[in-house]
Design a protein that fits this description.
Shape: globular
Largest sheet: 4 strands, mixed
Oligomer: single chain
Order of helices and strands: EEEEEEEEEEEE
Radius of gyration: 19 Å
Number of strands: 12
Number of helices: 0
Strand order of the largest sheet: 3-2-1-7
Helix content: under 10%
């Protein structure tokens, strides 16, 4: 506790409680992130990064927690950490994204249709495609996926996003597609 004064706790959608702590240092010194992931919730240590800071902006951090189920499916949860609530605070869980994914398997020159998922099926978001922005207590998390069909000079841009409403996390995820954007 003395080495990492900024602390937070959270609970995953599968009921695992975890703790994180930060030790911030001025450059060129190294800042550190500590985590406690209890075994009854994080049995599968084969997940490459069970907890990671995906992005930060101003005083907020977007954190991803992941595990694998007994059927080898990856489950991920995202949390918002507010550094203004230190020395100790809770992580606020984002709602699960259940927006249907787009189908990239067919190239008919038209807009690829959405691949239908059963109701409330969680969608895995690609952390490498995520962006995060905040203003005050409001924030936006967005995933941008680009798809360029073979032998075409246009690209499809799919955006899946979650907007908070003054730190309220009950807003649903939305998705939009920008079609046929010319490549220059």
């Amino acid at each position: 506790e003395s080495k990492a004064p900024i602390r937070a706790t959270g609970t995953t959608s599968w009921g695992a409680r975890f703790r994180i702590a930060f030790s911030l240092a001025e450059p060129p010194h190294v800042s550190r992130l500590y985590m406690q992931l209890p075994v009854p919730g994080f049995l599968d240590r084969m997940v490459a990064t069970p907890l990671s800071i995906v992005a930060t902006h101003r005083h907020l951090a977007l954190i991803r927690v992941a595990t694998r189920t007994s059927t080898m499916l990856t489950v991920q949860n995202f949390f918002i950490f507010n550094a203004n609530e230190h020395p100790s605070s809770s992580l606020k869980a984002l709602p699960t994204c259940t927006e249907p994914a787009f189908d990239y398997t067919r190239d008919s020159g038209r807009v690829p249709p959405r691949r239908r998922l059963p109701d409330a099926t969680p969608r895995l978001l690609n952390v490498f495609n995520l962006g995060f922005w905040c203003r005050g207590e409001e924030f936006v998390v967005a995933e941008l996926t680009l798809f360029k069909p073979i032998n075409r000079n246009k690209v499809f841009a799919d955006i899946c996003l979650l907007r908070s409403d003054r730190d309220q996390l009950g807003a649903p995820w939305e998705s939009v597609r920008a079609c046929g954007i010319p490549i220059h």
